Amino acid sequence: MNVAAGTFKIVYLMAAAAVVLSCSGCAYRLYAPIPSSQERVRIVTKTPDLYVLHIAERVTTLRKPAVRNALPTDVAHVANYQVPSDGRVTVRIPSFRPNCGVYLFNRIKVGGGGHDALKTWDISIAYGGRTLRRLSLKQLRDLPADSNGYRLLKTPD
User: Is 110 helix (H, G, I), strand (E, B) or coil?
Assistant: First the structure.
């Protein structure tokens, strides 16, 4: 009788543990939105007023991509800034929300929210309709700044 009771207790505990673990599963965390901000950029070239600064947010969609093995993307926010003769431009970055994070038992991060949201913003400098340089907002924020806080973006002449 003791062997049967002991076996029953072990089976009962294993079944209870399986039920508890299956109920807690994965949790998705929706992170707080990032408020809108401004980024100050100074285009360093001989004639900056001939250039256009283009900013776009690329978001992943559920549509089928045009190119095989590529992520399907759309452009959410787009803005063009004509560069003045002094080369200084203030770029407005709208509010955005980072991707959701996936957590096992709401404690251990297992996926999602892994890439930096600043990498989804493309900033390009165009001259005569041709893109000369393209970088992410993260790369732009890594550029050196002048004494007035403008990021120095050098263009190939």
Answer: strand
| Range of the structural domain that residue 76 is part of | 2-154
Is residue 93 over pLDDT 90? no
The answer to whether 43 and 54 are in contact (CB under 8 A) is no
CA distance linking residue 143 with residue 78, whole number of Å:
22
Residue-wise pLDDT for 72-89, tens only, equals 455 566 788 899 999 999
CA distance 124 to 151: 14
What is the count of structural domains for the chain? 1
pTM of the complete model? 0.63
Positive/negative CA dihedral, 128, 129, 130, 134: positive
For 152, list phi and psi in degrees, rounded to 5: -90, 110
